[in-house]
Amino acid sequence: MKIVVLVRQTPDTEAKVKVNSDGKTIDPNGITWIINPYDEFAIEKALKIKEQVGSGEVVLLACGPTRSEEAIRQGLAMGADRAVFIKDDKLEHIDPFVTSKFLANELQNIEHDLILSGKKVIDIESSQIPIFVAETLKLPFVTFVMKINEVDFGNKKITVDRESEGKHEIVEAKLPALITCDRGDDHPRYASITGIMKAKKKEIKEISLDSIDLNSLGLSKEDLEKGARTAITNMELPPARKEAKIFEGEIPEKVAALVKALREEAKVI
Amino acid sequence: MCSFELITDQDIVKSYCTDSSNYPGYADALVRPESTSEVVEILKEANSKKISITPIGNRSSLTGSAAADGGWILDTSQMTKIIEINHKEKFALAEPGMMLSDFKKKILDEGLFYAPDPTSEKECFFGGSIATNASGSRTFKYGSTKKYVRALEVVLASGEILNLRRPEIEKNTFGYLPFQSMVDLFVGSEGTLGVITKTEVELLDKPENFFGGMAFFKTLNEALDFVIAVRKELLKSGPLITPRACELFDNYALDIIRPDSPFKIPQNALAGIFFEQEYSLDFEKILERWLEFLEKNNAIVDDTIVAEKPKQQDELRRLRHKVPSTLFEEGGLYVNNGGGKISTDWSVPIFRIHEIIDYAKKISDEAKIQEPVIYGHIGNGHPHYNFIAKNAEEKKQILQVVHSTCKKVTTMGGTIAAEHGIGKIKKDFVKYQYPKQLIEAMRAVKISLDPNNILAPNNIF
Fold first, then answer.
1. Domains with residue ranges and CATH for chain B
2. For residues B298 and A30, what is the distance between their CA atoms, to the nearest angstrom?
3. Is there a contact between A12 and B310 if contact means CB atoms under 8 Å apart?
4. Which residue among A133, A172, B379, B382 is least enclosed by CB atoms within 10 Å?
């Protein structure tokens, strides 16, 4: 039983994001980087499956700049067995389509019965990458899965519980399949001190960008910089919230002032 | 005619009368000054009429020090300004009424660090933490609040303003030593000597990184041995293992956090130690050393978890906080029966921790009372040793045990009140710690600064 988990490094949810002067990228200075939280749920689900089955291998697959290795080490410290890392600083700003092409290409070299990933990445708020991967590999996929109900590797099928629009759907898929994970009842395990020390010795197979034939993937060098299908043309922080206005005086005066402000300043009535 | 607003509506006043100790306070009125000059006016008025004033923060006191015994309550919640954050000289000057956690966050956002971290930092005011010399888990490395207070603006009962600064000279032979730094007289004075209206505190550089951890042990004694070893290691082995926190969970405390724990607590664990370690470089080298140290000191190493991510670090601290909040809630169920939570606040030099816990256990067993929950700042020899009394009779028996323990700790170089202060509900223990002449001398200081005894009456004395 081989499970591959797609992982990506993202800024910590508490990080204070600053936009670079190019207006298209974020300033990485001062940012704490973490594993994309939804990918952590996927790792947790993968480790649980392996524990239930009692054997097998959990392989992490990442595609990104050098710094992403820290996220991979964190996943290995949680208990994943090894990792494959398509590593190059030129991969910092590639779009979901290019990312998925690289991941799908590498997945052909990694034996897998099941592929898990987070339901979305929180840095660019995108759910596209795993879907593109599944489409490229012609695999069945189920998105936004809360719970893996059953994995039957013998009969090559998986049953999952996904949540959508106020209802739960129980979905069965043939293996190999790709599942994108939501939290469900899972709480990603903390790394143990021994887990972190062991992770240092676990294999991270590095794939260099130079070893990949871009043409065979239908990509060009420009796609790495500009994006093959989508490009971020402008990025800005949401406007700062305006200060609240407090009306002074007796209640009738306050109400009159409020109505006046709603009519003349906010222009909502 | 007062130039400040005196709120006498008892529906409002009553809600300010008690604190987290559930001490049944009462008051005639509430005042909410917005500035030092308003505090001056209030105190002049109250002093001239000999009306008691109890200054309060967010009333998280566990000893009734923020629960008024009559008179007026002086609520500091409207004085919330941070007047200055000085990067060059690394200090902040602030009014008392800001939530301590908000104050610390503002400092952190500026790239600096304010070290004191009482467990209640999200429930207590900055000013309250000064008036009680608050401490917390990181006191293990950084010491208590007093170490960081550089200067104070205090309004005395007479309405006079004192501006006090900790001396920066190394040599001084004038005056009794405890009076040489008047700042220390007011820090931790529980509102009895004056109203602190501004405080200048020392800031540190923000630690680059830290990780939290939780180690488990098969016995309480092994956990205590581990802490003693950490202390010895700290003294001997140089800068590598320098935890800033070292907190105990006994088996009952582990049972409290088990249902919510995001990590596995091994079934055979009867004690846990929560620790935090700062680092700039060599994370793996530090971790390697910790692993070696944990193995050598009988921790269940395979289940020792490390919290590297900010979210996990917060979760760990929340779990730590869950123990006192659960006990507080549980104790609350028995208050109407005359019972409730009985918390101790004693501490001893860490090397005598086995001795005092064995003693406390022996007398608890002899009295046949319910076993305590032991948790908290073990690195400072300061475990909270808490009981839940289900009724008045149990409470009486438990208090006898607490009295005996407090008597014992003072013979071991310890204290009866390491961080909660005396307030109104621990006054019976004062006699164990100091000779009566010394207590009288303290009272004389109080009366010389507050001749009408209007400030926080019934606190400490």
1. 82-205 (3.30.465.10), 209-329 (3.30.70.2190), 333-420 (3.30.70.2740)
2. 38
3. yes
4. A172
